[in-house]
Amino acid sequence: MSLSPFKYLRLATCVPSLEVAAVGLNVLQTIASLEEAKRSGAQIALLPELGLTGYTCGDLFFHQRLLDEAVKGLGEISVACAKLGIAALVGLPLAVTGRIYNVAAVIGADGKIAGIVPKTHLPNAREFYERRWFGTAHDLPDGGMVKLLDVEVPFGTDLLFPVEGWDECIVGVEICEDLWSVIPPSCEQALAGANVLLNLSASNELLGKVGYRRDLVRQQAARCIAAYAYCSCGPGESTTDVVYSGHALIAENGRLLGETARFSFDPQIAVADIDVGSLLNERTVNNTYRDSPASKTFRRVPLTIEPWPSKAGLLRHVDPRPFVPSDPLRRAEHCEEIFRIQSTALVKRLRHTKPKGIVLGLSGGLDSTLAALVAVRAFDLAGMDRQGIVAITMPGFGTTDRTYDNSLALAKMLGISLREIPIRDAVDLHFKDIGHPPDLHDITYENSQARERTQILMDVANQIGGFVLGTGDLSELALGWCTFNGDHMSMYHVNAGIPKTLVRHLVEWCANEIFRGPESALLHDIAATPISPELLPPDAKGEIAQHTEDLVGPYSLHDFFLFQFVRNGFPPEKILFLAEHAFSPEVSRETIAKWLEVFLRRFFSQQFKRNAMPDGPKVGSVALSPRGDWRMPSDCSVAAWIP
To answer: By the 8 A CB rule, do 494 and 470 touch?
Structure first.
């Protein structure tokens, strides 16, 4: 059972105001931060290292008064957690059998202290002198328990905290320097199942350290396939020799979800919804994680938290276009990288097969334009004459002047060979042969044109001693929006890894970065052309009458569904929930639900086409090659996935 219908955990990192050694005041400030976290709907709050006393108390850590006050303050915070209904991780110094330890107290939403985790790695160089005051986790007393506030509490670095009622969500704890060590304790915790890793920290600021710290947290989250939260103490600490900024971060599998402002004396908080479901799926499919069992045995202590506040909405950005970076600079970098992957893949195929040329159908649409651009780059890299690229435009019943003229202009602009082979007469003869009325504009009418074009392409490839370069994209493969043994077939499928929402940006990137001047205007016009197979006659104005997205749905939605279904393995209910969050209010829930069902039905029913798809390069984290990323029977049922 999950405490969230979609397996989310709301986590807060809190940096309270602080006075060094003023435990009573620090307790009040901690409770105030917990109250703020609770108002945000947080189920669990992470606070800084030694936050009840301050990290910079120095030799005051040896004073029993400070230690006693810290334990007393912990009791007050435990009561507050029960009253508020929030779990918390609080840092304090704790005396155990004659030694003082730098520890994290893990408190449940019921106010019970679930466990005490001591710091493993104690920095003791340059500005840090922790071994002067604290014992290491290597010197723990026997028994694994400590009496605290008249209760026996689990004590040690061998503790994991599965959420009570949601055993899949497991919390692991480490403290500051532990993360900066060669092998952080969180690595072993992750291998033992922990997927929410929490770090109480006191990380001072130095020039350039903030970027390193941010990368360290992101990379540890990625390496462990986990959420990783890091909460450092603020500028209220002593500035005798160093300054602390209150930098707190929340990352998930390499992605930064939130962080606090630095150098503020006011309390700071960062809150994010952790997608535990996504982490669980990622670990399930990652065989490297599965094949790396923990070498350490852990005790599991249940941790009580309140349910996820679903009515408060989702506190994380859901990108409506997961394949297309929203930042223009990053998007341009992606496009350049993808274009290089595509062209390099084709160069390898050219070098291996040593053809006299290649053939592709040039329609004046997005996909064939991108394939032609890739072919030109590949021929240039391979030192081959562009005239060896034979582009064939094959006007049919639905071809419009706009796409026809653009295909001619594109071939001329690129300096490639062009042949025009109309298909109307051949298809009319075919209709006569099979007894199909030419005015019956059904699927036979459409697919006959697609298969005629493929026959021409392959036969011309035989004529020139070359092969056919496919033009279809990833979105079409997902939906099966390609004619079997028609445009679905080629000898190399150069666009197979690119979703439709990204194809347009790739063509526009080529227009802006490679083909400038008059050529740029042509490519921008192609990018702005409505998406259509042009298999039905144009309208009365001679314009495209058949719009793909009117028939199968918006590619923006389908690409979103594809990413969430294949990449994250999410069920339809969660995909619908995320799509609502991403596309609202522009797209209604009813519209999203309608096209989600279309996507699921088509995705399941069209696997047979993907099973027969030609070779093509993978370019992103989602691919549908039956030889690599996606293997599914052609005849499995979709019933369990239809809401």
So the answer is: yes
